[in-house]
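Human:
If only I could read backbone structure tokens as easily as an amino acid sequence. I am handing you a single protein, as its sequence and its fold in token form. I hope you can help me see how the letters and the tokens relate. Thank you; the sequence and its tokens follow:
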Amino acid sequence: AGAAPGVYRGKVTVTAAGQVPAEIPVLLRVEAFDLPAPADFAADVWIEQAPYGLAHTAGVELWSEAHWDLIRQSLSHLGRIGADVVHIPVLQFTEFGNESDAMVRWSGDPATENVRLDFSLMNRYLDLVADTLGKPRAVSLVVMQGGGLDQRLGGGRFQMDESNTVLFTDRDEGVDLLEHRHLYGILARHAVEQFRRRGWEDVLHWGHYWDHPPQGWLIDAMAQHAPDVYWIRSGHIAGGIHQRVRAQSEIFPSGWDRPDGAVHALNPRAHCHYHFLEGYFPPFSFRLLPERAMYTRYTGFGRMGADFGRSWGRGVNVRGGVADFGTKNLLWVRNGRVHTSQRFEVLREAVQEAEVIAFLQRARASGRLDQGRTARIQELLDRRIGETSYVPAYFFHFNSWIQHDHPQRWQQRSIALYRMAAEIAASGAMR
């Protein structure tokens, strides 16, 4: 920030034991346009951090200080890209790989109102979120299984462990939650109070389901005890969206029959504008995702995993499993450190450019620019999408010519974008 506009040249020297040092020329071009902080980016970025994945991958004790250090590192990376969604597993054995653990603990007699809730894990985690991401746009308390062929759609169960702590669970042992539905009301009321204390009651959601909503009684119960808290979901439209949904990522691009005020992120899992599968897609694919989401009138993209490792769906108690992510690992863990990746950095640049595009779109629609500049913005944005629109949505058969050809001219497109933004900013029209 504050660097003088211009072209800077230098070199990076790479050394390795027993090898001749390599010098790589570097050219840095600075334009006079200030990006906002990542937390203020316009696009919704649903990259999900996985505390259970970190513990499993790194082989550290769950909720140990070593684990918390890894969580902070991971969230710090996500803070650089403006990640907007956080999941808190309250149910055991969810898709998030938490197995028999949960981030909200219970004790007492579940057959009565004498139940005490322990939010200490959740609150410590959200404190780290606040320090690294800022206030997210959605925090999901996961109170139902997300998907599968015979999930009980919110009909979880309780179980007592040796420390007399009660956890939501979808296992068969313990107290049948369907016989003690009042416990959901206890959770709802106390969760709202916890979020109100930190000024986050407006970002609290219940989740997380895919195509099939929870049973009607659960939706009604949560609405009765927390009328201002709505649901978050992912998946296909599946015949419509429940009116209690206020945030979702869609696998298939849909029509415009969406709930008013809902956040709609494009889900690049399958059959949409980008198909990601772990390990075989080129990093350049990530450069196109945020922009394509914007051009199809989505608020952003999701779901993508930051650091699930092999923990996604680990221990989930749903016959048939749960729907998979396309990308479960944008960050990598090794030797006690959480590392970024090429595709993460490419995606971060793409999110930044999406912010520039949003700025130019606002300028074009503002009525403050002369006709010539308005037309040039339109031509620039049309050219950007036009030069990459032929890139297919599927990469099952990546042949050599398209793999090498489709990234061409990306630097020129980026330079033109930032130059136009700098020109509009210097004009003062958008002050």
